[in-house]
Amino acid sequence: MKNLKDQLTQIVSAAFEASGYDPDYGQVTVSQRRELADYQCNGALPAARPYQTNPRQIAQEVADRLTGHAAFAEVSIAGPGFINLRLADDFIADQIAGMKADPGGRCGLEPVAQPQTIIVDYGGPNVAKSLHVGHIRAAIIGESIKRIARFLGHDTLGDIHLGDWGLQMGQVIAELRERQPDLIYFDPAYQGEYPAESPVSIDQLEEIYPAASAKSKADPEWLELAKEATGDLQAGRRGYLALWRHFVNVSVADLKKNYERLNVDFDLWLGESDVQPLIPGMVESLIRDGHAVESEGAIVIPIEEEGDKKEFPPLMLVKSNESVGYATTDLATILMRVRDYDPDAILYVVDARQQFHFTQVFRAAYKSGIARREKVSLEHNYFGTINGPDGKPFRTREGGVMKLADLIDMVVAKAFERMAEIDAAADYPEKERLEIARMVGIAALKYADLMNHRTGDYTFDLDRFSSFEGRTGPYLLYAAVRTRSILRKAAEQGLTSGAILPAAGETERELHLKLLELPDSILHAFETRAPNHLCDYVYGLATIYNRFYREHHILTETDPSRQASWLAVAELTVQVIELVLDLLGIEVPQRM
RNA sequence: GUUCCCAUAGCUCAAUGGAUAGAGCGUUGGUCUCCGAAGCCAAAGAUCCAGGUUCGAUUCCUGGUGGGGACACCA
């Protein structure tokens, strides 16, 4: 089924063409003035100049051709030449029926004609370091972009891209060596098997890492030790490798637990370490092909491009001490992804502060041919920083970072309190109430983040994530759950949904039209890589639906065919709300 | 210094170059003998400044002002 806006554009374009104008002027949009029209076409205005005529005259010619078309109840022109389209109620009802009957629950969104292979790189947590609030946006926004791409029919893979191979690993090793020098991993002479059990727990790691990091900053000599340990690890020292595997395993288990609570999951759990074997060959070939050159003792890739106003620092490929940094790793990651998946796009959902870094890496990848510009779209879908009240990146009062697990605990606890306050779910089993509180809390948290455009910074405020009234995640859950309750009662009474009738009033008509905007809204969110557009859409839908709910009492309706139609509309609305929430990565409880 | 991002109502945020700039919170006032009031209805309240492009600019361009980020050997 073709989406409504495209159908209308097709009709209007044909009218432009039949009147002797370029059909491209026939683009139709949802009207900004809903009291005047449902959809509008502004094409007559820009057409006036090239055709050297009055826009109102063009509009009139086109409108004359459209009048009488079965889709329209009224075609009029207004202002300087807007073509206003009011759709026929029975045409709308037919569209709704088509949407509801659409196979596969796609609600009128056709899968893309040419599916692409898309890798979404999000998450990017470091091993040995627990998730903190700074990781939340990548997880939430990335997950949503991944789901949207997948729903559109693209072959989509989410990759967590673990930070598991940098200096931080050497720092942790050095720190542990200082604390427990007798551990068998530090004995160079040891030749046997290493224990299967990790010598450190996740909690210990989380304490060791910041301690080591702080020491590195304060003490240059200690930093050298850490770098040395990093070098030894990367050179393959047995004991260090064994230790490193423990760190990774312990961390990944913890990461999985936390991401799972957020309803975030990855198809690939690859990390920086996975591309290390590719690096020597990549560097060699870059040098051989002349893309990489020696500079100040290091090997760099110059990446200036024509049009640069200022000199552009080159990408640091191999440092003067012969080690490699994350730019090199990221380049090798592109090499691996191209080799293994042949992607059409790689979307990096990463903090805006990495913009410069990605510009360097993308330029180097294209310039060297690691990625072909005409084949792979490398995009940094950056997001803004979560700031504290002082406008700087958020820190807790103690100056530390707030752990994501703690934030989730707080939000879920708030949801639980809230349920008790309003006496919700009071007679449900304890276990279900806890699960509902989790879903409500996570919905509040995720919606509060996703509703903001991803590029903007925002200020951390616990109230923002634990608000359950007004424009929030729970509002949306409530609309869905309340409707499910009606549908359950209807089923108990033996009532079933039936044919969709033309809208019974203005509110239902608006609801129909809003439902029909779904496909376009998903497409728009994907094209702009901006899930907040879906947040807007689903909130608008739920609001209109709530009004409909108040105005029409479905279960006591006396006209059986009207009642059956309303049940069908209610079913479709729940389906759409749940579909959009799923694209946002938000789960909906059966009841709450 | 160079460069990137941001600036909309008291607060927090929206807005595909279109007509009268939308919400939520907060404030004030309504609304449960009726499918779940985490709801619904109503009131007051805003595009940083100056130019430019355009039939039309919150949106695009230039220059200011203010805030934040980044700028080769840490990731």
Structure in words:
The chain is α/β, with parallel strands linked by helices and 592 residues long. The protein is built from 20 helices and 13 strands. The strands form 4 sheets. A 4-stranded antiparallel sheet has the order 1-2-4-3. Strands 6-5-10-11 form a 4-stranded parallel sheet, with helices on both faces. Helix 8 (220-234) packs across helix 9 (238-261), helix 13 (404-421) crosses helix 14 and helix 18 (518-527) packs antiparallel against helix 19 (532-551). It is globular and about 90 Å long. The structure holds one RNA strand of 75 nucleotides.
List keywords for this structure.
592 residues, alpha/beta, 4-stranded antiparallel sheet, 4-stranded parallel sheet, 20 helices, 50% helix, RNA-binding
End-to-end distance: 34 Å
Would you report the number of β strands? 13
Low-confidence stretches: none
- How would you characterize the largest beta sheet? 4 strands, antiparallel
The geometry reads as globular
- Global Rg: 29 Å
* Share of β-strand residues: 5-15%
Number of helices, where a helix is a run of at least 4 consecutive DSSP H or I residues: 20
If strands are numbered along the chain, what order do they take across the biggest sheet?
1-2-4-3
The percent range for helix content is 40-55%
Q: Structural class of the helix and strand makeup?
A: alpha/beta
Average pLDDT confidence is 93
